[in-house]
Amino acid sequence: MKRGWSAGALLGWAEVLAASAFSLLAPGCARARPPEVSPAVLADAARGVVAVATAAEDGADHVTLCSGALVAPNLVLTARHCVTRALTSTPACDAEGHSHNGVHLSADVDPGRITIYVGRRVRPDVDTPVARAERTLHPKGRVLCDADVAFLVLDRPVVGARVLPMRLHASVEAGDWVVPVGFGGGPNNIVGLRVARNDSRVLAIGPTANVRTGAVLGPREFEVDQATCRGDSGGPALDARTGEVVGVVSRGGSCLASGNHVYTRVDAYARLAAHAFVTARRVAAANLARREVERADEARAAR
Length: 303
What we know:
Layout: H1 12-25, H2 39-46, E1 49-55, E2 63-72, E3 75-78, E4 84-86, E5 105-108, E6 114-117, E7 131-137, E8 150-154, E9 177-182, E10 195-196, E11 200-205, E12 208-209, E13 216-217, E14 221-224, E15 236-239, E16 245-252, E17 261-265, H3 270-302
Antiparallel strand pairs: 1-2, 1-6, 2-3, 3-8, 4-5, 6-7, 7-8, 9-10, 9-11, 9-15, 11-14, 12-13, 14-17, 15-16, 16-17
């Protein structure tokens, strides 16, 4: 299938809006044991997780790889620290969501340096991106505590991935089972390899400090037991029963450790999500109109 814009590119928005409406109404529930998720269902859900590559701004031939969830045809949910210049790699946060080591971020990375890749294994140095970021949307402020979330509005709809619904009506609860997905490669930390786990449990919901694991959670954060690895940042936690995105990887401990793996809740940013959906839809329409004008000009020039 050719990349680019077509009238059908906007049709995917009908499914997105329907899924969002359902998400706002559907009741949530906690589970006492891991639900049975078939490999086929798990693989299908994982197809909605994309790789987010940010090129170095100093001209060096280097990219930083993160993960993200495709939540609309041209909209990716990821972590803010993946798309903003960082002043520290170790943000210190308290249970109120305040920073204990000053500001964490400077300016946003130029969206044009952020590219999107799909597939089970990605290599940005040789693979061709399926889309490029056009705009970045995130909470105000320059700290990551309780606010490590961002949306990327893309220059075209993503081909080769499925759109994932977000659960914006309610938070996860302690004891809920989730499916973390990301390109950190799992316990072997093979960066660029997409791994999904269906046996991860929510340990705690902020605001709190988990003495056993050392995790400090702000009011908009939660902790899971399964490790997150380098490359998983920005990747989603999916509700193991419904497949809805409930959180975004923010920070974590060792790639092999259990606990102290912190996610930002997406329901806490429902208003930002609504703004992102509107913006992405407008950008999609504008890009489609521009492309149609370009095609008309090309047709006239060819006569």
